[in-house]
Amino acid sequence: MTQTTKTQKLLTFEEYLTYDDGTDTRYELVDGELVEMPPESQENSNLARFLFVELLKHFPFYLIAHKDTEIEVAGRRARCRLPDLMVHTEESYAALISATRATLTREMPPPALVIEIVSPGTANRVRDYRYKRTEYAAREILEYWIVDPTDATNYDLPVGGGTV
Protein backbone atom coordinates (compact mmCIF):
# COMPACT_ATOMS: atom_id res chain seq x y z
CA MET A 1 0.00 0.00 0.00
CA THR A 2 1.31 3.43 -0.87
CA GLN A 3 0.39 6.77 0.55
CA THR A 4 0.91 10.17 -1.03
CA THR A 5 2.59 12.63 1.29
CA LYS A 6 1.22 16.16 1.06
CA THR A 7 4.04 18.59 0.35
CA GLN A 8 3.95 22.35 0.24
CA LYS A 9 4.83 22.31 -3.46
CA LEU A 10 5.69 19.85 -6.18
CA LEU A 11 9.33 18.79 -6.08
CA THR A 12 11.75 18.81 -8.96
CA PHE A 13 13.95 15.76 -9.42
CA GLU A 14 16.91 17.71 -8.00
CA GLU A 15 14.88 18.71 -4.92
CA TYR A 16 13.85 15.09 -4.45
CA LEU A 17 17.47 13.98 -4.46
CA THR A 18 18.24 16.34 -1.57
CA TYR A 19 14.95 15.84 0.32
CA ASP A 20 15.36 14.73 3.94
CA ASP A 21 12.45 14.71 6.37
CA GLY A 22 14.61 13.40 9.21
CA THR A 23 13.06 9.93 9.15
CA ASP A 24 13.94 6.60 7.56
CA THR A 25 10.80 6.74 5.41
CA ARG A 26 11.39 5.70 1.80
CA TYR A 27 9.64 7.51 -1.02
CA GLU A 28 9.04 7.35 -4.74
CA LEU A 29 8.57 10.59 -6.64
CA VAL A 30 5.46 10.64 -8.83
CA ASP A 31 4.78 13.77 -10.85
CA GLY A 32 6.59 15.87 -8.27
CA GLU A 33 4.77 14.38 -5.26
CA LEU A 34 6.40 12.23 -2.60
CA VAL A 35 4.71 8.84 -2.31
CA GLU A 36 5.57 6.97 0.88
CA MET A 37 6.68 3.39 0.37
CA PRO A 38 5.65 1.54 3.55
CA PRO A 39 7.26 -1.73 4.62
CA GLU A 40 6.27 -4.75 2.53
CA SER A 41 4.10 -7.58 3.74
CA GLN A 42 5.96 -10.62 5.04
CA GLU A 43 4.86 -12.58 1.95
CA ASN A 44 6.29 -9.96 -0.43
CA SER A 45 9.50 -9.71 1.60
CA ASN A 46 9.96 -13.49 1.51
CA LEU A 47 9.32 -13.55 -2.22
CA ALA A 48 11.83 -10.74 -2.84
CA ARG A 49 14.50 -12.56 -0.83
CA PHE A 50 13.77 -15.81 -2.67
CA LEU A 51 14.12 -14.07 -6.05
CA PHE A 52 17.33 -12.40 -4.89
CA VAL A 53 18.85 -15.78 -4.05
CA GLU A 54 17.71 -17.21 -7.40
CA LEU A 55 19.23 -14.26 -9.27
CA LEU A 56 22.53 -14.86 -7.46
CA LYS A 57 22.73 -18.19 -9.31
CA HIS A 58 22.89 -16.33 -12.62
CA PHE A 59 24.47 -12.92 -11.97
CA PRO A 60 27.38 -11.58 -9.90
CA PHE A 61 26.10 -10.27 -6.55
CA TYR A 62 27.23 -6.70 -7.24
CA LEU A 63 24.90 -6.45 -10.25
CA ILE A 64 21.80 -7.22 -8.18
CA ALA A 65 20.04 -4.41 -6.32
CA HIS A 66 17.41 -5.19 -3.69
CA LYS A 67 15.34 -2.12 -2.78
CA ASP A 68 18.42 0.06 -2.69
CA THR A 69 18.72 1.61 -6.14
CA GLU A 70 16.30 4.18 -7.53
CA ILE A 71 15.68 4.89 -11.18
CA GLU A 72 14.56 8.17 -12.70
CA VAL A 73 11.77 7.70 -15.24
CA ALA A 74 9.77 10.04 -17.45
CA GLY A 75 6.38 11.42 -16.46
CA ARG A 76 4.31 14.58 -16.62
CA ARG A 77 6.62 15.92 -13.92
CA ALA A 78 9.59 14.51 -12.03
CA ARG A 79 9.42 10.76 -11.36
CA CYS A 80 11.72 8.36 -9.56
CA ARG A 81 10.92 4.72 -8.79
CA LEU A 82 12.36 2.33 -6.21
CA PRO A 83 12.03 -1.19 -7.68
CA ASP A 84 11.93 -4.28 -5.52
CA LEU A 85 14.80 -5.87 -7.45
CA MET A 86 17.04 -4.74 -10.28
CA VAL A 87 19.77 -6.41 -12.27
CA HIS A 88 22.34 -3.93 -13.51
CA THR A 89 24.28 -4.06 -16.71
CA GLU A 90 28.00 -3.55 -16.24
CA GLU A 91 27.42 -0.03 -17.63
CA SER A 92 24.60 0.93 -15.24
CA TYR A 93 26.58 -0.44 -12.29
CA ALA A 94 29.72 1.46 -13.36
CA ALA A 95 27.69 4.69 -13.64
CA LEU A 96 26.84 4.45 -9.93
CA ILE A 97 30.35 3.77 -8.63
CA SER A 98 31.28 7.43 -8.18
CA ALA A 99 27.72 8.61 -7.41
CA THR A 100 26.86 9.86 -3.93
CA ARG A 101 23.39 8.27 -4.12
CA ALA A 102 22.28 4.98 -5.72
CA THR A 103 20.01 6.66 -8.26
CA LEU A 104 20.12 5.91 -11.98
CA THR A 105 19.32 9.23 -13.63
CA ARG A 106 18.05 9.45 -17.20
CA GLU A 107 21.58 10.32 -18.37
CA MET A 108 22.87 6.97 -17.06
CA PRO A 109 22.53 3.61 -18.81
CA PRO A 110 19.42 1.60 -17.89
CA PRO A 111 19.61 -1.66 -15.93
CA ALA A 112 19.07 -4.98 -17.69
CA LEU A 113 16.07 -6.05 -15.60
CA VAL A 114 13.60 -4.53 -13.14
CA ILE A 115 11.34 -6.71 -10.96
CA GLU A 116 8.30 -5.38 -9.10
CA ILE A 117 6.38 -7.50 -6.61
CA VAL A 118 2.78 -6.33 -6.58
CA SER A 119 1.38 -5.33 -3.21
CA PRO A 120 -2.31 -5.97 -2.49
CA GLY A 121 -4.81 -3.39 -3.69
CA THR A 122 -6.16 -2.03 -6.94
CA ALA A 123 -3.99 1.12 -6.89
CA ASN A 124 -0.83 -0.97 -6.51
CA ARG A 125 -1.85 -3.29 -9.36
CA VAL A 126 -2.59 -0.35 -11.67
CA ARG A 127 0.71 1.28 -10.75
CA ASP A 128 2.78 -1.84 -11.42
CA TYR A 129 0.89 -3.20 -14.45
CA ARG A 130 0.17 0.08 -16.22
CA TYR A 131 2.27 3.02 -15.14
CA LYS A 132 5.55 1.34 -14.28
CA ARG A 133 5.37 -0.84 -17.39
CA THR A 134 5.16 2.31 -19.54
CA GLU A 135 7.79 4.19 -17.53
CA TYR A 136 10.32 1.36 -17.65
CA ALA A 137 9.74 0.80 -21.39
CA ALA A 138 10.31 4.51 -22.06
CA ARG A 139 13.52 4.25 -19.99
CA GLU A 140 14.60 1.49 -22.43
CA ILE A 141 14.76 -1.22 -19.80
CA LEU A 142 14.59 -4.41 -21.85
CA GLU A 143 13.12 -6.70 -19.18
CA TYR A 144 10.39 -5.86 -16.67
CA TRP A 145 9.01 -8.68 -14.56
CA ILE A 146 5.80 -8.27 -12.60
CA VAL A 147 5.51 -10.80 -9.79
CA ASP A 148 1.94 -10.89 -8.52
CA PRO A 149 1.41 -13.24 -5.55
CA THR A 150 -2.38 -12.79 -5.72
CA ASP A 151 -2.52 -14.15 -9.29
CA ALA A 152 -0.11 -17.05 -8.85
CA THR A 153 -1.85 -20.35 -9.34
CA ASN A 154 0.91 -22.52 -7.86
CA TYR A 155 2.47 -20.05 -5.45
CA ASP A 156 3.52 -21.63 -2.18
CA LEU A 157 6.43 -20.27 -0.20
CA PRO A 158 6.60 -21.94 3.22
CA VAL A 159 8.00 -19.93 6.12
CA GLY A 160 11.18 -22.02 6.07
CA GLY A 161 11.77 -21.56 2.35
CA GLY A 162 10.73 -23.48 -0.70
CA THR A 163 10.17 -22.94 -4.37
CA VAL A 164 7.80 -20.83 -6.37
Structural commentary:
- By secondary structure, the chain is α+β, with helices and mostly antiparallel strands.
- Helices cover 27% and strands 23% of the residues.
- It has a 4-stranded mixed β-sheet, sandwiched between helices.
- Strand 5 and strand 6 form a beta hairpin.
Structural class: alpha+beta
Task: Note the run of SSEs as H and E.
Answer: EHEEHEEEEHEEHE
* Radius of gyration, CA atoms, in whole angstroms: 16 Å
Morphology call: globular
Give the neighbour order of strands across the main sheet: 4-7-9-10
Q: Note the gap between the termini.
A: 23 Å
**Proportion in helices:** 25-40%
Q: What does the main sheet amount to?
A: 4 strands, mixed
Mean pLDDT: 87
Estimate the strand proportion: 15-25%
Keywords, please?
164 residues; alpha+beta; four-stranded mixed β-sheet; 10 strands; 27% helix; globular; disordered C terminus
